[in-house]
Amino acid sequence: MCLFTLSLFYSFALYAQPLTGRWIGVHTEWDLDSFCPLPAYMDFNPDSTWQLGLVDESAAPRTGRWGMEGRVLRLDTTHYAPELVSLQGDMLRIGRVQPMLFRRFRAVPMARETVWQRLAGQVWQSDSVQYLIAADGRVGLRNRKTGAQTVHYAQVLAMDKSAFLVIRGSGNGREGNIRAFWQVMSNEVGVIKLMGGLGSNVGTETLRWVRPLAVNETLKPTGFQTCANCFAQHLANTFVGMNEISKRNMFTLFRQRYQPINVPGQSGMIALKFVRNCAGELGVVELQELDDNYKRRQFDTRITDQLRAIVRNELPGNLFGANEPRHTEMVVSCIFRLVDGRVTDIF
Amino acid sequence: MQFLIRLTLFLWFAFVSSTSQAQNPTDWLFGRFSELAKYQFPSSGESSQRAYRNYGFQVAMTKDSSKRGDVLTYRALGELKYGNYDRAFTDYEAAVKLNPRLAGEVGWRYLFLFRDYARALAHLQAFDDRTPNFDDPIDDYSVNYLKGRAYAGLGDHENALKAYNLTISQRATRLGMEWVDYRYLVARGVSYLAQKQAVEGLTDFDMAIKNYPKSVMANYHRGRALEQLGRTDEAKTAYRDSRFFLLSNGSFERDYYYEQPDAAYEEDIEEALARLK
Questions:
Q1: pLDDT tens readout for residues B159-190
Q2: What's the pLDDT tens digit per position in B45-81?
Q3: Where are the alpha helices (DSSP H) in chain A?
C-alpha cells in the first residue's frame, strides 16, 4: 500500500525538467462525456520562456515565462496549486473544472500535401466512423453502425514538419470550432494512422481505405446538425439562450396557437427545449414532463404533440426579432404549467 | 453569501461562453488557463455531470447535516441550470429537511424559477416563522416581499398587501422611503390595482419612479392606475414614458435568471396606447 502511494505520488509530481519541451493539445473536458478538441501547442522552453499557440496559426501566439516553485507550476502570472496539474507519463492535465489535456509532442516528419493527396476524393474508415472526403475539403462523417452522417470541412495543417488532420465547421460553412484534431503518425498506401483524443484519453485511430468517393455522392447531413461542434456546454444550460424579447413573442405565439384539452389530471409542468442552429434550422424538441410533485410522468399526447407541432410549424418564421443575432446557435427553452390540460403559465 | 459567490462564478462562465466567439482565439485560450487555476474543486461554478457526481460525493462524506443541506442546494442550482427540474426538486426538498434554515432560499427558487407559488409560500412561511416579527433577508430580498409575491401569484392580493406593507414600512422606518426598493413599491401598487385601489397604487408607482425614474414597469403600471382613475391624458403620457424607457433600456425589467413578475412588455404598452387612442 505504501509503495503504491509513493509510486502514485511520483507519477503525479511535477518537476521543471519533465515539462520542458513542446506539448500538443488533445482536448478540453467540458464534462465527463463531452470533449472538445484542442488544436493548440504549448512550449516550455529551458530558458523559462513559455509560448501558447494555435496549430493553424490563425492568431498570434501568446508568450510569457514559466517556472516551478516547489510543486506549484507558474505560467506567466498564473499559479497552479499542485493538485490542479498532473503529469502522467506523456500526458499533462491542467485544471479540475473543465480541464485541458495535453500530450508530449513527438514530431513525425511528413509533408501535408502528400497526406491530403492520399485522403482527398476517397472514402476511409475507422472501426466506428466512415470518412467521405471530397476534393474540395468537404467531409462526411458517417456512423458505421447507425448510418447517421454529419458534414464538415477537413484540412491538413503543418507544424514542426509534422502533419495534422483537422475537421471543423459544418455543412453551413468552414467557420466553427473543431470536430476532430489528429496528428498524422503514418501515411501508407491504404492505411493512415492518426493520434489524438479518443473519449477521455489519447489514442490512435487507424483509417483504412475503402473506395474512391463517387462523383455524384451527396455529402449532406442525415439529420439536424449544429454548426458548432463543441456545443454541449451551451446545450446543457437552459439559462443561456435566446433574446428575452423574442422569447416573449414565442410565449405569445404558444398562447395563441395552443388549443386546450379538458382532461382532469393532465396537470404539472412541461419543460420544452430545442436548439436552433446558425442556419435557422430547429433540432429535436425535447420535453421533460413532470407532475405537480416534480416526478416524471407522461402527458396526454394531444398536449405534447401539439407543443411539438407549434415548434415545428409555427416558430421558424416567427421565432426571432430584428434584434436577434441570426448566425449564432442558441438553446430555446421554456416551461409550461398546466392544470387539467390548460396552460396556466409559460415562462 | 456562498450562493452569491457561486452565482458570480456561473455568470462569469456564461460571460466567457457568450463572448468567446468574438475574441482572438489565443487570447481566449490564454484566459482559460487563468480560469483553470482558480477552481480547486470539480464542482466550482459549473453545472455538469462532473459537478453532480462530486456534490454527491461531498454529501456522502459530510457528517454535519446542515452542511449536507448546503451542498444539496448547490447541486440543485446546477440541476436547475441543466433543466433537470425533478432532480433539483428532490435536492431542494432534502436540503430543507436537513437544514430548515434553507427554507427561505429554497422558497425563492420555487417562487421565481419554478413559479410554484403554493410550495414557495409554504417554505417562505416556514422560514419566516423561525424569527417572528423580523423581516428576514433572503439573498437580496426580504422574506415578506417574497411572501407577498407568492400570495400575488396565487391571486390572494389581500394577503400580498399585508406582506408588502410589513416589509415596506419596516424599510421606510429604518432607512427612509427613498431607500425602499422600487420593485417592492411596484409590487404593492400592482396588488392595489388588483384590489381596485387605484389611488393607493398611484402613490406607490409615483414613489417607485422617484426611486428609479427609468423603470419601464413603474411607468406602465402608473399608466394603468391613471387609466383606472379616468385621467386618460396623463395615462397616455405614462405609457409613452414606459415605451421610451423600454426602447432606451433595450429590454424590459428582468433578473439574470428570470423576468420581474411585474415587468411590462412592448405588446402590453402598445395595447394600452391603442386602447386610449
A1: 999 999 999 999 999 999 999 999 999 999 99
A2: 566 788 888 899 999 999 999 999 999 999 998 888 8
A3: 2-12, 16-19, 112-119, 232-236, 244-257, 301-318
Pick from B36, B85, B257: CB nearest A100: B36
Q: Which residues of B touch A99 (CB under 8 A)?
A: 36
Alpha helical stretches, state H, chain B:
2-19, 25-38, 49-61, 65-82, 85-98, 103-108, 117-129, 143-153, 157-175, 182-194, 198-211, 216-228, 232-249, 266-275
CB neighbour list of residue A220: distance below 8 Å, 6 or more residues apart: A140, A149, A151, A171
Q: Cβ A294–B49 below 8 Å, yes or no?
A: no
Question: Which of A129-138, A250-259, B224-233 is least confident?
Answer: A250-259
Contact A237 B82 (CB under 8 A): yes
A118 phi/psi in degrees, rounded to 5: -75, -35
| A256 CB within 8 Å of a chain B CB | no
Query: With contacts defined as CB-CB under 8 Å, which chain A residues touch B29?
Result: 40, 52, 54, 62
DSSP structure class, residue A213? P
Mean pLDDT confidence for A140-151: 96
The answer on pLDDT for A158 being more than 90 is yes
pTM for the full predicted model: 0.82
Q: How far apart are CA B254 and CA B131, in angstroms?
A: 30
Is residue A80 within 8 Å of B36, Cβ to Cβ?
Answer: yes
A95 vs B198, residue with greater confidence:
B198
Using DSSP, state whether A274 is helix, strand or coil. strand
Alpha carbon distances (Å) from B156 to B127, B162, B164, B260: 20, 10, 12, 18
Q: Which residue(s) pair with A104 in the sheet?
A: A23
In chain B, positions 43-82, which contact chain A (CB-CB < 8 Å)? 43-50, 53, 80-82
Q: Give the whole-angstrom CA distance, residue A202 versus residue B241.
A: 61
Question: Please, which residues 131-150 of chain A have a Cβ atom closer than 8 Å to chain B?
Answer: none
Q: Does B248 touch chain A (CB under 8 A)?
A: no
Q: Name the residue in chain B with its Cα closest to that of A29.
A: B50
Task: Choose from A77, A200, A239, A274 for mutation: most chain B CBs within 10 A.
Answer: A239
Q: How far apart are CA A53 and CA A43, in angstroms?
A: 9
pLDDT digits (tens, 9 = 90+) for A296-312: 999 999 999 999 999 99
Q: Which amino acid is at A21?
A: G
Query: Tens of pLDDT along B106-156?
Result: 999 999 989 999 999 999 999 999 998 899 999 889 999 999 999 999 999
Angle between helices A301-318 and A244-257 (to 10 degrees): 130
Contacts of B114 (CB under 8 A, 6+ apart): A269, A335, B85, B89, B120
The Cα A276–Cα A224 span in angstroms is: 10
C-alpha span between B277 and B269 (Å, rounded): 13
Contact B52, B75 (CB under 8 A): yes
With bands split at pLDDT 50, 70 and 90, how would you rate the model's confidence at A5? very low
